[in-house]
Amino acid sequence: MSREHERREAEQRSGTDAGLDRRRFLALTGATAGALTVGTQPATATTKKVTDVAGFSCDHPHFTCGREVTAADGMVSTVDPIAGGVAARVLREGGNAIDAAIALQYTLNVTQPHGSGIGGGGFMVVYDAESDTVEAVNSRERASQGATPEMFLDDDGNELPFGEAIQTGEAMGVPGTLKGLETARERYGSCSRQRLIEPAIKLARDGFTVDWFLAEQIAANTEKFNEAALETFSDESGALYTAGDTMTNPDLAETFERIKRDGAEAFYEGPIGEDLAAEIQRHAREPEHAVDEADLAQYDVTIDDPVRAEWYDVELVGQPLPSSGPTIVSMILKLLEFLEIDTYERRSPEMYHLLAEAIIVAWGDRMEHMGDPEFVDVPIDSLLSDAYLQGRADLIELGQSVLTEGCFGGGEPNRISTDGQTTHFSVVDRWGNAVSYTSTIEQFMGSGKMVPGRGFMINNELTDFDRTPGGPNEPEPWKRPMSSMSPMMVLRDGVPEFTAGSPGGWRIITSTMQAILFRYVYGLEPLAAITEPSIYTHYCGGISWDAGVPEEARQTTAEWGQEWDATPSSLGNVQVIDIGTDALTGAADPNRDGQAVGLERAGGGQRRT
């Protein structure tokens, strides 16, 4: 099977190829990436009206909404305008960035249940302005204490097909999102749990408007739905919800009411957890290897020191392992610094070749060395050292590829993952607190199984392990699977000036990395940086690409050994905030319905798109 065919099959499963390509969006509306200038409102200007959130409107003088907006007193950038409105209202009412992020994540469980929720996990990178520190709230899912390296093999010792594996109880990790939200609120927040969860309860009970992407994911995933999911995503007549419908989720409203009253304990040790564990066990091939009530009761998050790397005159900061994302983003960017990518023009053959080669080399190190640091001794300091990366950069040359045959570093192609989806958002408040948060249930709609009577989807996160035993990312008891999620901040003199992240499985790393590259090395404004044509590859090569990568660049680099997909893709869904001295600029990727929302307490924010 060709790499192109594998990609198309994967996209068909996840529904990622049906959306409006962001480069095509710009072309259709008569603009080009990089064409934005300060103080202008180009032809791409669009505001998603939000009528579902009490106390919020994009027409209110304190709020400014759009693909790229500037304001002084707070900023939210998210894929979901409803959740963005909830978060902006929290900021307006005096909550800080962490409060707003928590309310936003609760709301996403209602309005974007295909991408994240309390049945999954995530990574929240927090800058606390008062203490001038960066920490990461790690709510990654864990395998059962009964997990084994062989639990994704069939009776003949072969890997289960991916589409089958994701629906097994063995694929469903102990969820961490709720414990992460409560930990972050207690550690950094200023609002009560009751205040922050109430908007989500109201939306679940009273209804919200289904957007085109949720409707698409409902239709694309019905084959893996259990009865509870199918019922929840259908209207009273039994028809699946479609774009523009008003959807309610009374079971989730009741679940959130119980959490509002009793906290995380209701989920991990109470009746919600009992129902969750029962549903996981129901779908397990061998229940002793799947999550049970004892696993739920033992779960807790960790507070991690971020991974850090000096790059040019700034510092890259993000979630450390078990997310490989920010480490690999940093390795690639440092390789490109050593390769003097700033001497080559944007969209040139040289730029794309060096990008691809740096990604391939860094990805080879990911596959060879990385896993959960509680189980694997990963030499992060050495991998990020100038001496090591200079040596890796010396392997890369214009005119030829590091890939001559097979995969870089001797990795096996059967470990390639083209699947996985998440959601990412960022929030910054007027006091300088900042959040970069990526959360997930792994596949769109996760395992496809909803907890009956509880209204939330269960993750299939444990298929992020290598399904064949033997490497650093093999399944083990209580282990966390390696992730590619890349919630990041760029710091100058210890203070954040840019946040970035994206959904997209393995593509998260390259999408986030190129947003930072185009902002800092090529000086693009935030929206232009995230819509600039980007590429994706990995340790076995083969390049997926956004529309807008010049044909000349593809032809020339093909002569140098790069293998390009025949047609373009839509890569990532990047959300960023640029943090200036006097103003905040948020930008939301236009390949879905996301938008930035700025808060100007005196009124009068600036919509730039």
Please explain how this structure is put together.
There is one protein chain. This protein is of the alpha+beta class and 609 residues long. The chain contains 20 helices and 20 strands. The strands form four sheets. An eight-stranded antiparallel sheet has the order 1-19-3-11-12-4-5-8, with helices on one face. Strands 9-10-13-14-17-18-2-20 form an eight-stranded antiparallel sheet. Strands 6-7 form a two-stranded antiparallel sheet. The chain is globular, with a radius of gyration of 22 Å. Residues 1-45 have low confidence and may be disordered.
Beta strand count:
20
How much helix, percentage-wise, in residues?
25-40%
Strand order of the largest sheet: 1-19-3-11-12-4-5-8
Number of helical stretches of at least 4 residues: 20
Structure class: alpha+beta
How much strand content do the residues show? 15-25%
In short:
This protein has helices spanning 3-14, 22-28, 81-92, 97-111, 162-165, 177-188, 193-206, 212-220, 227-232, 250-262, 265-268, 271-282, 293-298, 325-338, 349-369, 380-383, 386-393, 507-520, 526-531, 551-559, and strands at residues 63-66, 68-71, 74-78, 121-128, 133-138, 208-209, 246-247, 302-304, 307-311, 314-318, 421-429, 434-442, 488-492, 495-501, 535-536, 544-545, 575-579, 584-588, 595-599, 606-607.
